[in-house]
Each structure stands twice: as C-alpha cells, then as structure tokens.
Amino acid sequence: MNCGCAEVVTPGLLDLFDARALMVASGVPVGGCERVALDDATGRVLAEDAHAVLDLPGVDNSAMDGYALRRRELAVTPSGLPVTLRVPAGAGVLRLSDGGCARIFTGAPVPLGADAVVPQEKVSLDAAGRVHVEDELAAGANIRRRGEESRVGDVLLTAGTRLNAASIALLASQGIDIVTVRRRLRVALVSTGDELIEPGQTWVPGQVYNSNGAMLRALLAQQGCEVLDLGVVADTAADLSQCFARAREETDLVVCTGGVSVGEEDHVRPVLEHLGGISFHGVAIKPGKPFVLGWLGSSLCDGTPLIGLPGNPVASLVGWQWLALPFVQGLQGRTPPALQRFPVTAGFSRRAPRGRRELLRVVLDWTGGAPVARLAGGQGSHMLGAASQAHGYLIIDSNNNVEEGHVYGYCPGAQFLD
Ligand code: AMP
Ligand code: MG
Fold this sequence. Notes:
With about 425 residues, this protein is an alpha/beta fold. It has helices at about 15-25, 70-75, 165-170, 210-220, 235-250, 270-275, 315-330, 385-390; strands at about 35, 50, 60, 65-70, 85, 100-105, 115-120, 125, 130-135, 145, 155, 180, 185-190, 195, 210, 225-235, 255, 275-280, 285, 290-295, 305-310, 340-345, 355-365, 370-375, 390-395, 405-410.
C-alpha cells in the first residue's frame, strides 16, 4: 500500500536531479587506451576523434537503377538516346560517349560526361532500344555526389563516442579496421548481507538469493566493464573493510549493494568513513533513498570511488540507472547523455510519497492512439516483476498525488541501456 502517512521525511536528502548532476560532475575519465579490431569494438569508447580518410561517397554514383545521360543531349534528340554503355556497381569510372546514355545501377560510378540519372521507371524504351524521358530532369538528379556526406579530414566520430552498430559501419565505410578505444573500466562488485546465497545454492527459509549481484553483473557487462566479483560479504565491519581494501587495489571503481542505510547492521557508511570518505549519502527518491557516493583512499579524485546501492533490488536498479550510470560513463570518458523525458498521461491515481520524488515503473498503453502510463505491477522496492516489465518511469514530484488523466514526466527505460 502506498500510504503517505507512514513516510518519514528525512532532512538532508539530496534532490534527485542535484544528485545526478553531482554524479555527472564527479565522473572523471580514468586513463589508458588500447587498439582493437573493429569487429571487437562494439560498445567500446573511442579514445580519440575518428577522421575521414576518404571522401564519402568516394565518387559520384547513382542513387537509382536507371540511365545516366547528358540532359542537353536528351533535350535535342527527339529520336531518343541509344544505350551505349552498361555500368554495374563495382565498375570503375567510365566515360560516356557523345550522343549515348548508360544503363546504370544503384551505387555504380556515374560515367564521366553524364549529368543526371533517370530512374528506370521514368524511362520508356522504343523498339530500337532508345531511351525516352517525359519528365523534366534537374541537373545532378539522382546522383550522390562525391564528398557530399564527408570530406577527407572531417571528424566522423568524436572521442568519447560509444561505438554502436551504425558508428562501426561508418568506420568500416572508410576502410578503417582498427580503432583506439579506452581500456575497459575495472569494477569491483560487492554484495553485502548475511542472508544472501547465490543462485544455484539450496535455499532455506530466511535466506535471499543474491539477485543484485546477477543484475549488476548484467548492467556492468552492458557498459563494457570488466567485473571483479567479490561475491557476498558478511555484515561485519571487519569483513567489509578487508573486501574494500582489496577492491581498492585492483579496480577503478567499487560498486556494492546493501548495508548502506543507517541501521546497526549497515556497515558501508562507517567503513567508508574509516577507509576514505563520503561525497553524499541519501537521495530524495523512492525507491533508492539510501544511495551513497564515497571513496577509498585520500579523496574522490585520487582514491578509488565507491558507489553504495541500496539492498532492495528495485532501489538498487534505480540507483544504478539514475545515478551510478552517468558516473560510470564519465569514468569511461563519455559525456553522459541528457535525460530524455516527455509528458505522458497517467492512467491511474495514486498517493505520492512525502519528501521524495517517486519513480514509478510503468508501461505505455497505446491502444487509444496516444500513450497512457499504467503501473507495470507492484511498486514495492523489492518487487522486480514490475521493473522487469516496465517501459520506463513516471516521475512523481513529492507530495503531488497522481491523478488519472493528468500529465507527468515520463523517462523511457531504454535510455539507461546505452
Ligand atoms: P539492506 O539494504 O542491506 O538493509 O537490505 C535491504 C533489503 O534488500 C533486504 O530485504 C535484503 O535482504 C535485500 N537485499 C540486500 N542485498 C540483496 C541482494 N544482493 N539481492 C537481493 N536482495 C538483497
Ligand atoms: Mg543488509
């Protein structure tokens, strides 16, 4: 039940967007790069600008299957132009003889002398095989000009770009087969909690499967990180200290889950205060309040940053997507993309929490022609079902009850996968 009365307004919580801005500002790139084959570069981050080494397209070429000709000759030859040349894709740059036209195919080099291509469906051939064209032809019609997309030396992709299929294809189109990318971020993953067991182990009542570990391994893999999985760590300050000390030596970033509130079984904060420090602790969101950014060592810049995510699985996911991800992107040398958010009508009513923004997991229903947000399922911070079904989040400002038919900010979930 979503009863606002039960909510405790905690003073000192950071606003969600302030916290996100802090994460963005704090995520400074870590050093190191490597050369990899283009085929191995999907999801990697370019370490330097990629420049065009060819004009693109490389030569004037046909945008259509059709006939390449001189417009002037077409205009003064009522008997039609004979086809004197055939130019399939892969042919070199040929020359069109005076008074003739060329049968040409998409992508084939336009022969020298021709100044337009007529699509084959706009051409009639007479009994002698001569080409007649009814319509007016503009100069350069259906010709893709050399260099119209890019010129030698142009910046094709800037440093910090994460390579996707299209950007890999763009590099391939230049003949580039090796790229310089940032080395993979090394991330230590720590799951705290005496109740946790790993999937595959036999469960007894009271135990909880470590779903956060599985989720974060997937999320970190999606970001191209190398994971040092330190498994489940017991709820003692000594165990946690030992684990953090190792993580600090071997990785660029520590991500832990659980034990990050302020109860007596929550050891992350005191251990962090002992081994390093805290940037901020607590964000005014539901779920995801007990989020911490800190460091192991002397400072956030010189030490190893540590992100403490809440134990509750959906809170952990929210903390990752909204706060940890832009920080990780910054460490990788990327510029975290701005949040995509647009107005969507709510198809339900619901009380808003006091003192915190709520990030409701919703699906978009398009059956009425325009999107209507519906709850994706139970909204408890332990309920992964709704999170697994959701298309995105409806953002509900604190104390602002949701009313069916009213419009709220919607953030598509897909943006957190890139
Ligand atoms: P905590 O933040 O440690 O107090 O944990 C809050 C809730 O999240 C408790 O119900 C924990 O059992 C649960 N929890 C903590 N860590 C995990 C995890 N790695 N996987 C699944 N549930 C967890
Ligand atoms: Mg715990």
